[in-house]
């Protein structure tokens, strides 16, 4: 195994409770967030003059669940190239050999805030619809690579002050749910579609549900389906949208069906009641389609329990509330269609030692491609549009 780097290229700095050992080109580290996998810092890249985000994956092979997730994320980040999906600018490990291998650092484009922070703001129709449009473009691109996310949530979506948006992660692996993760980190389930909660089969429009939940939260200023646990999540959905039809029930596994059919019956509320006019911003003066009635119409087509009756990503992109932004190069993507993701990765079972080896090899492979010019040194980020409506 080739050696990755000499120690002299690195320096160590304490950020919050964590220690970052990074390439000297990255200076001025400041913590900006943390997730299930570790801490994220903002930094200045002295080589390119660009501000970047650096995520530290601490011992990503510490257990099989962590390892699989880190490996999958890394492989997918290398595969996908779209302006609404976070791009990878660099990857490194300060350890010099497989034997010493501990941590992986992913360098990404730096954004200003995650969507949790933006949802709190009073957004006008232009911003709301532009954010929705970009989420749908990013999701469509993931789908074209064979990746169905299933776990989109505001903490994994980041935005810039110019209203450009990027999705940060790649959601659940196909085999997710079978793995039990021992972590103090609380999993957010508020945005998960009924078919995920109820363990049904799913198709691409599973991700439309999550966008609908995020959209509803922007309008209401509160989480739409705030379940206390897995089971309560379902209660919160049916209390507002009503008990689904028999046709839907028939598609459930017997034990789940038994539970769902024995819940109290709810009639649900109309979308005029769930999202009354007072919750919406003032009508747009520039676009006559950007108004409460159109926004509510789209919401009512996204937040549909039965996936067979829910709008698809393409239909949502064509909806009058969103298609004001429609640009074929953004929707279809400018780069060639991504190579489909090899789902056998999700099914792979390895020991911790084997995962360590695989992740290390991926890091070495990335660094070598960078060195031999097969990857751009400055990164692959596409320049973003602004919120202006030209
Ligand atoms: P993650 O570990 O990917 O779940 O990220 C955790 C948090 O770090 C996110 O919710 C964001 O607030 C922040 N974050 C991650 N990546 C970036 C980035 N590229 N730009 C700005 N903030 C980020």
From TrEMBL:
Segments traversing the membrane: none
Chief localization: cytoplasm
EC number: 2.7.11.24
UniProt key word rRNA processing: no
One GO CC term on file: cytoplasm
A matching Pfam family: Pkinase
Top-tier EC class: transferase
Family: Belongs to the protein kinase superfamily. CMGC Ser/Thr protein kinase family. MAP kinase subfamily.
Protein name as catalogued: Stress-activated protein kinase JNK
Source organism of the structure: Branchiostoma lanceolatum (Common lancelet)
């Amino acid at each position: 195994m080739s050696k990755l780097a000499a120690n002299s290229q690195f320096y160590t700095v304490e950020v919050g409770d964590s220690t970052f050992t990074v390439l000297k080109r990255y200076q001025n580290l400041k913590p900006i967030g943390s997730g299930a996998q570790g801490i994220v810092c903002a930094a200045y890249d002295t080589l390119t003059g660009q501000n970047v985000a650096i995520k530290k994956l601490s011992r990503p092979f510490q257990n099989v669940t962590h390892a699989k997730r880190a490996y999958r994320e890394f492989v997918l980040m290398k595969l996908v190239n779209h302006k609404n999906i976070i791009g990878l600018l660099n990857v490194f490990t300060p350890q010099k050999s497989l034997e010493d291998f501990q941590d992986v650092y992913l360098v990404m484009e730096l954004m200003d805030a995650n969507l949790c922070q933006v949802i709190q703001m009073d957004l006008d129709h232009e911003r709301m619809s532009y954010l929705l449009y970009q989420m749908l473009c990013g999701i469509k691109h993931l789908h074209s690579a064979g990746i169905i996310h299933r776990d989109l949530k505001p903490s994994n979506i980041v935005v810039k002050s110019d209203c450009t948006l990027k999705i940060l992660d790649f959601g659940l692996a196909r085999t997710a749910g079978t793995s039990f993760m021992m972590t103090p980190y609380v999993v957010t389930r508020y945005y998960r579609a009924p078919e995920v909660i109820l363990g049904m089969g799913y198709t691409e429009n599973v991700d439309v549900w999550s966008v609908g939940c995020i959209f509803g939260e922007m309008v209401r200023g509160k989480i739409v389906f705030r379940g206390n646990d897995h089971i309560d999540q379902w209660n919160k959905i049916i209390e507002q949208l009503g008990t689904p039809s028999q046709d839907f029930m028939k598609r459930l596994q017997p034990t789940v069906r038994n539970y769902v059919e024995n819940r109290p019956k709810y009639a649900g509320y109309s979308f005029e009641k769930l999202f009354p006019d007072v919750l919406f911003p003032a009508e747009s003066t520039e676009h006559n389609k950007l108004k409460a009635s159109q926004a509510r119409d789209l919401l009512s087509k996204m937040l549909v329990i039965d996936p067979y009756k829910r709008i698809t990503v393409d239909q949502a992109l064509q909806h009058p509330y969103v298609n004001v932004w429609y640009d074929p190069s953004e929707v279809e993507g400018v780069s060639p269609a991504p190579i489909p993701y090899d789902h056998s990765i999700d099914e792979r079972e390895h020991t911790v030692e084997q995962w360590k080896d695989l992740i290390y090899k991926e890091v070495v492979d990335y660094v070598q491609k960078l060195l031999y010019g097969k990857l751009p040194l400055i990164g692959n980020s596409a320049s973003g549009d602004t919120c202006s409506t030209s």
